[in-house]
């Protein structure tokens, strides 16, 4: 992917310049990723007297959670755990062991947001055994599964799950299974030079206060990692679907599915499995925000057009919530993505006879062949249940989305091999409304349609 146009770069740079100046940020970096490649990078402010680069480390806070979740999903895909397993099965000894792995990944476990004791982000960490023992019944703030309630404690438990299954620290597992394969070699547990120092900016004066930084130990899986804009660009590409050999694209797509929302009917923010979700400007974004004393960071990716945005800053507060969506809006304004060129696809599976109108009772639907060998079944000219289906080895199709996700579509053939009707999880679709020649459940009135 070529870099952005000069006019686009200028508009992007001006946006972060305004952010750094008005937010009074010691330093700020931002980047745009397209089709898996870094298309633009900009920075403002200073780190050690110079402008930060793509190799300057910042603490990334809760973006750490997404990497821990990725190892958890690898364990699931390997058959070592199930998402519905209670955490007590894998981390025994806690009194809140009934919450499931999926609930911890999606922040629906109901557990307390923070660990017992002092503010963990600004005090020395404690061993995991001490943390687990400290989680009594009062750690449960809501019934498991009832609602979204962000829990740093939950990811501390998931980090320990990883450690016990891999027989190594969660950080070593993340490094060996994610960071190294993706080429993210500048993402580390402890800072390395060059790195930014974390600051608090006085609210009423232009002066700085260094923030403490330490090893969070048991709570480290919730927000310990340091990274660079270059490494976070690779992570944005991963979230958008360029997964390498770390996870299958289907598993990452599962992580991006909404498991819960945190703003009710508005549904502008939510959570999947280890990934935060947002809807803004017509886009559905996945990624994660990060916040630790002295640092802010966020990565968002839109898999629908393979674009990502990110920022890092060394300030406890001051970055607006709209910075990254504003960068996406600038990109859309200056360089809207062109649709892929249409090309004909041969009907190698001989499915052309199945295309066209079908009827669920009197409601018309259209079946269309998809370029990947699957099919779509959509209502014609009105509301209804639309789904895409993937071809299966036995000649059926598996629902991918919508109402029929996970359900089986089957073509029922006559003795001569022609298609009589479609059977979609007991629903019968016929070539004419309530075709009396098809096996319509309940039968069709023998007198037919009447006035």
TrEMBL record:
Q: What is this protein called?
A: CubicO group peptidase (Beta-lactamase class C family)
Q: Which domain of life is it from?
A: Bacteria
Q: Which InterPro entries match?
A: AmpC-like, Beta-lactam-related, Beta-lactam/transpept-like, DUF7586
Q: Which Pfam families match?
A: Beta-lactamase, DUF7586
Classification from the root reads: Bacteria, Bacillati, Actinomycetota, Actinomycetes, Streptosporangiales
The segment(s) forming the Beta-lactamase-related domain are: 17-327
PANTHER family, per database record = D-ALANYL-D-ALANINE CARBOXYPEPTIDASE (PTHR46825:SF7), D-ALANYL-D-ALANINE-CARBOXYPEPTIDASE/ENDOPEPTIDASE AMPH (PTHR46825)
Q: Which residues form the DUF7586 domain?
A: 350-431
